[in-house]
Amino acid sequence: MEKQFLMGNEAIGLAAIGAGVSFVSGYPGTPSTEILETVAKHNPGDIYVEWSVNEKAAMEAAAGAAYAGARTMVTMKQVGLNVASDPLMSLAYIGVKGGMVIVVADDPGPISSQTEQDTRHFARFSKLPVFDPSSPEEAYAMVRDAFELSEKYHTPVFLRPTTRVCHGCASIEIQEPLPRKKPEGFVKDPKWVIFPRLSFQRHGEIEVTLPQMGEELSHSPFNRMEEAQKASSHSRYGIAAGGISYEYVKETLGDVDVRLLKVGTPHPFPESMALRFLEGLDQVLVLEELDPVIERELVYLCGKHHLDVQIKGKLTGDVKSAGENTVESVKASISAFFGVTLSAPAPEELPPLPVRPPVLCAGCPHRASFYAVKQAMKGKKAVFSGDIGCYTLGNAMPLDMVDTCLCMGAGVTIAQGIHRVEPDTVNFAFIGDSTFFASGITGVVNAVYNQTDIVLIVLDNSTTAMTGHQPHPGTGRTMMGEVSAAVSIPAVLKAIGVKSVVTVDPLDLAAAVEAVQNAVKVKGVSAVIFRSPCIAVTKPSPGYTVDPAKCIGCKKCIRELGCPALVWQEKKAAIEPSLCYGCSICAQVCPCGAITLTGGDRK
Question: What distances in angstroms separate CA 410 from CA 119, 317, 431, one per listed residue?
Answer without folding.
Answer: 22, 35, 9
